[in-house]
Write a structure and sequence with these properties.
Blueprint (H helix, E strand, L loop, with lengths): L2 H13 L5 E8 L8 E10 L5 E7 L3 E11 L5 E5 L3 E3 L4 E3 L5 E8 L8 E8 L4 E8 L3
Parallel strand pairs: 1-10
Antiparallel strand pairs: 1-2, 2-7, 2-8, 3-6, 3-9, 4-5, 4-8, 9-10
């Protein structure tokens, strides 16, 4: 094949998902009826050349959402605290997981049932919004 074809193909491959912020591997466990909160675990990849600061999230399934960080205190007791801005460095990813950073869905409209998908929107400083879906599954 001619060289220009390979050059164009290489440029297209390099563009891929770079230059964007994406939500990948978002999940939550099932919940029993009547619970007043649920944890979502999300990985956000920052494929841009700039740091991105996550400031808020929302979902139609939750009355409100808070981003929480879990840490052990001096007595080895796990504590959660809301975090209002998490910076994801350029080219890096934020991996939320049990016992660490997570998205707390407060007052879910209904219980979370295995197999369903829940829409979620993340907002970043500067006006960027990124949509994703949280898969309900038992891991």
């Amino acid at each position: 094949m001619p060289k220009p074809f390979w050059i164009v193909l290489g440029l297209l491959a390099a563009c891929g998902a770079s230059g964007s912020v994406v939500v990948v591997d978002a999940w939550a466990g099932t919940t029993p009826p009547g619970v007043d909160s649920a944890a979502f675990y999300v990985t956000i990849e920052n494929g841009t050349a700039d740091d991105q600061t996550l400031t808020a999230a929302s979902s139609p399934r939750c009355v409100s959402i808070e981003i929480h960080e879990s840490t052990l205190d001096e007595n080895q007791v796990m504590r959660m605290r809301p975090v209002t801005d998490l910076t994801i460095s350029a080219g890096r990813r934020l991996e939320m997981e049990p016992g660490r950073t997570h998205v707390m869905c407060l007052e879910p409209a209904t219980q979370l049932i295995e197999g369903e998908r829940i829409d979620i929107e993340f907002r970043f400083q500067g006006g960027l919004t990124v949509n994703g879906q949280v898969a309900v599954e038992n891991r």
